[in-house]
Amino acid sequence: MALEDIFKGFDGFDGVEAGPAGIAATIGAAILAPIVIPALAGVAKPLAKAAIKEGLLLSEKGKEFFAEAAEVFEDLVAEAKAELAQDQTTSNSQPDPNQPEIIVVSD
């Protein structure tokens, strides 16, 4: 009965009753933490390093893709400007057939 009296008086955070299971879990975690954390760190470190490597490779590929796309776009803009300049030169040298010719008549 003395053990039950200890657990009855224990309140968890924000007035939530922790109970024996909560206390046992806390004690178990405190005992296992020095064993489990280094084991997880040994597994997590290579996984984190691999994820960082993949992220760097993906970033480099993205930079290359956008650089090539920008170059293609700049080439298209230059070609369009050249065609517009050529069209303006051609239209200035040849009269528009749809525009009526104005003749000045003087007395």
Give your account of this protein's structure.
With about 110 residues, the protein is mostly helical. The chain has one domain. It has 2 helices and no strands. The chain is rod-shaped and about 120 Å long.
Number of domains: 1
Radius of gyration (CA) equals: 40 Å
Would you list the SSEs in sequence order as H and E? HH
Count of β-strands: 0
How many helices in DSSP terms?
2
Shape: rod-shaped
**How helix-rich are the residues, as a percent range?**
over 70%
Strand-helix topology:
Blueprint: H1 2-8, H2 19-93
In short, what is this structure?
The protein has 107 residues and is mainly α. The protein is 77% helix and 0% strand.
State the main characteristics.
107 residues
